[in-house]
Amino acid sequence: TDGRGIFRIYSPEMGNKMRRHHYLLEEMRLALVNQSFTLSFQPIVHVEDCSIDYFESLVRWNHPVEGEITPSEFIPIAEDSNLILPLGDWIIHEACRQMAAWYNAGMKKVRISINVSGVQLKHRILHPWIMDILNKTGLPPKSLLLEITESCFIEATKETITQLELLREEGIQIAIDDFGTGFSSLSTLADLPIDVIKIDRLFIEQANEKSKYNKILESISELGNKLSLKLVAEGVESAEQFELVRKLNIQCVQGYLVSRPETSRNVGSKVLKQNLN
Ligand code: C2E
Ligand code: CA
Ligand code: CA
Ligand code: CA
């Protein structure tokens, strides 16, 4: 009790956590109005020749007082409050706008990916929502890829799956993100409307000659290749990990070894020159 005979429901840590939660939520509302969010872009490259397959858009928030706040902290809070809806609308619009500009500048073969949250899957009617943004920004459907986590796929309704199928018919690709952490049965892979499997960073991190993770990686790769899905290994940080991925016939890698997420400006100046055809 707190000395007055009242049971304390919250520990001090929980109190701090809730204060932080409310604080960040209010600050995010402001940040959205003041346009303080930005996007960074990380390349996913082919193992074979290190050419860029696509860029993943990752949201960034530089808070005037707190400095950089990570998406792993603020995205879950935004999802709790449905603030992810206006924030997510801004993210997809901004990513498509940027990619359309790169496309028109000559970067025709590279695609852009956007992380779509489960809340968005639930509250947006995906096909008209995405097609409207593509129309407004002038980005061709084939230049867009949506990343949806394995756990969101498990909870997706039949209607959501139908909407995803409609998007695929337009030429938009779908990736299953953080694969291996969501406990979907492997057989569901064959039924889901997907083009790309992004193998969670955990597996690359844990894989070595002795580890069971290596065996799991092997079977994911075998299955993905049999189903003609493109495989991406996330979180490749070392040359050893890159070599392992190559041996396992995983086609693409993402990770600090190749590049950290970059500002649009850096992407423009570094990449555009090499992709002008
Ligand atoms: P994610 O979708 O799995 O994104 C990949 C994360 O791994 C990014 O972290 C990226 O910077 C990081 N990463 C890339 N290569 C490496 C590596 O070699 N080593 C390590 N340790 N990390 C690497 P980030 O940008 O901090 O984002 C974290 C998570 O926040 C994302 O995980 C995603 O779930 C969420 N997120 C980020 N941006 C967005 C967004 O625009 N919308 C939504 N809904 N979620 C987002
Ligand atoms: Ca992702
Ligand atoms: Ca991921
Ligand atoms: Ca993740």
TrEMBL record:
Domain of life where this protein originates: Bacteria
Residues annotated as domain EAL: 21-275
Name recorded for this polypeptide: Diguanylate cyclase (GGDEF) domain-containing protein
Species for this entry: Pseudoalteromonas denitrificans DSM 6059
